[in-house]
Amino acid sequence: MLIVNYKQCYEKQVVDCWNRCCWYDAITIPKFRKQALFDDNFDHNLCFVALDDEKLVGFVLATKRKFPYLERGIEPTKGWINVIFVDKEYRRKGIGTQLLNCVESSLIERGVTDIILGAYSPNYFFAGLDPIHHEEACHFFNSKGYLSGAEHFSMNRDLHGFQMSQKVLEKKYEAECKGFKFINFEYQYSLELLEFLKNEFGGGWKRNALISMQNENAEDVMLIVLDKENQICGFCMRMIDGNPMRFGPIGIAESVRNEGIGGILIEMQMYEMSKKGIYHMYFITTDEPGRRYYERHGMSVFRTFIEYRKDL
Fold it and tell me: pLDDT above 70 covers what percent of the chain?
C-alpha cells in the first residue's frame, strides 16, 4: 500500500471512492473542486491518497488556515480533518490509521495543537461525525484519542399547503402595533444590514448576506425587521449555499429578543418559500436549545452530528 500526496489525476477516483464510502453524503466533481481544491486554504501537503497499485482505495483531506477568516483570523493552533475514508474491502488493514498519521504529522509540523473533525468554515462537508450513518468513523476516532462533545441537529419541514399559524399571526399584529415592520429586503438597507450583522453576529453572517447581494438575489431570499425608529433589528435568509431550500441564518438584535420576532420571521420565510413553490425547508445544524425552538415551529430532526476533537 502506498500513501502519497493528492494530485489532480486522482480527482475522479477520489469522488468515486467518496461516493462508495460516504454514500449518505455523495458529491459531484464540481462540488469537490469548489469546497476542497478551490478553497483558499487548500494544501496538497495536507491531502493524501492510499493506492493499491494504481487503484485509489483511501483519501484524507485536512486544512490549516493560510489566510485569515473574517474575525476569526488565522486560528494558528487549529486544524481540521475535513474528510477521511477507506474503501470497504480495504478496511481493517491499517490504511485509515496510516492516512490519519500522515495528516496529523503534517498538521503538527504547521503548529496545530487542536484538531477538529469536519466543521471547517466556510467550506465544510460535515458538521461533525454522524453516529448513525458513519458509525464506523466514530469508533475509529474514539480509538485514536479523539473526544466527543456536543450534539448538533439538522432539521427540516415539508411546506406543502403551509399557512402561518393563528398564534404567530396574532404575535405579528401585536409587534406591528408596537412599531415593528416585517419586510422583504430592499437594497436601500444594504450597508445598514451588513453593519448590523457584523456587530450583532459576526463576520460570517455579514459574508452570507454580502454574497447574496453580490449575486443579486438578496431581495428574493432575505427578510428584515425594522423597529419603531426604522432601524434593522432582525434578519433571516435562505439559500446561503445556492440551494433554495436551505434556511438560515436567522438572528434578532439582543435588545428585542423577548418580542417573539424570531418565530414570526421563521413562519414568514416558510410562507414565502411555499408561495414560490419551494415545498421543503431544511438547515444543517443547531444546538439542543435550538432544536426545541424549531420543533415549536413544526420542524423535525433528520440528522445528528457530534463534535469531535483532539488536543495534541
Answer: 100
**Predicted TM-score of the model (pTM):** 0.90
Sheet holding 181-184, edge to edge: 181-184, 222-226, 232-238, 247-252
Phi, psi angles (nearest 5°) of residue 178: -85, -5
C-alpha triplet 284, 22, 90: angle, nearest 5°? 155
Task: Say how many Å lie between the first and final Cα of the chain, rounded.
Answer: 27
DSSP classification of residue 160: T
Report pLDDT digits (tens) over 101-160: 999 999 999 999 999 999 999 999 999 999 999 999 999 999 999 999 999 999 999 999
Tens digit of each residue's pLDDT (9 = 90 or more) over 247-268:
999 999 999 998 999 999 999 9
Residues 106, 112 contacting (CB under 8 angstroms) = no
Domain span at residue 81 reads 2-126
Question: Element (H or E) spanning 143, and its range?
Answer: helix 135-143
Per the domain annotation, does 252 fall within a domain?
yes
Q: How far apart are CA 18 and CA 6, in angstroms?
A: 14
Decide which of 102, 126, 150 is a domain's last residue: 126
Q: Read off φ and ψ for residue 47, nearest 5 degrees.
A: -135, 120
What are residue 111's DSSP bridge partners? none
Nearest to 128 by CA among 140, 120, 119: 119
**Residue pair 285/106 in contact by the 8 Å Cβ criterion:** no
* 8 Å CB contact between 48 and 10: no
Per-residue cell: 120: 471547517
| The C-alpha cell that represents 28 in the structure block | 459531484
The grid cell for 222 is 432575505
Q: So what's the pLDDT on residue 102?
A: 97
Coil, strand, or helix at residue 309? strand
C-alpha cell at 158: 415539508
CATH number, domain of 16, equals 3.40.630.30
